Amino acid sequence: MKKFVLMATVLATALFGMSIASQAATLVANIDVSSQTMTVSKYGQVVYRWSVSTARKGYFTPRGSYRPQWTARMWYSRKYDNSPMPYSVFFHGGYAIHGTGAVRNLGRPASHGCVRLHPANAATFYTMVKEVGFGNTRIVVTN
């Protein structure tokens, strides 16, 4: 009986450990609205820290934890004058992390709500998301 209880405990511990590991994201993008930065971690190690632009006054960047919903190599905003959104990673309805031509505004709020990046950084992030998959990517937006 003691062997059975011991084996059951070991099995339960192993299964519990696997379920936690399976929920951990391979790729995490932490967007800090107050510092206008995005920190990208892969397997728990910080690999990039970039300046971003989030929502300017009168607009809103949603806070929370998300998984990518869809991507587009090049998207044009239907809401804002067909504005180009290269390397878009959509995470909450029409909100995306994407490249911008307005790189001089990076580091301060300037968008209609999306998270804007330098186009080269957006391309890097887009490629990483495509490589690891939506299910292994987490996007976290905090104040």
Q: In a nutshell, what does this entry contain?
A:
The protein is α+β, with helices and mostly antiparallel strands. Helix content is 25%, strand content 36%.
Strand order in the largest sheet: 3-2-1-9-4
* Helix-strand category: alpha+beta
Principal-axis shape: globular
Enumerate how many helices there are, as a single number.
2
Biggest sheet statistics: 5 strands, mixed
Q: Which band does the percent of strand residues land in? A: 35-45%
**CA gyration radius, whole angstroms:** 19 Å
What does this structure look like?
There is one protein chain. With 143 residues, the protein is α+β, with helices and mostly antiparallel strands. The chain has helices spanning 2-23, 119-132, and strands at residues 27-32, 37-42, 45-51, 64-66, 70-76, 84-92, 95-99, 115-117, 137-142. The strands form two sheets. Strands 3-2-1-9-4 form a five-stranded mixed β-sheet, covered by helices on one side. The protein has a four-stranded mixed β-sheet with strand order 5-6-7-8. Strand 6 (84-92) and strand 7 form a beta hairpin. It is globular and about 35 Å long. The chain starts with a helix and ends with a strand. Mean pLDDT is 89; it is low at 13-22.
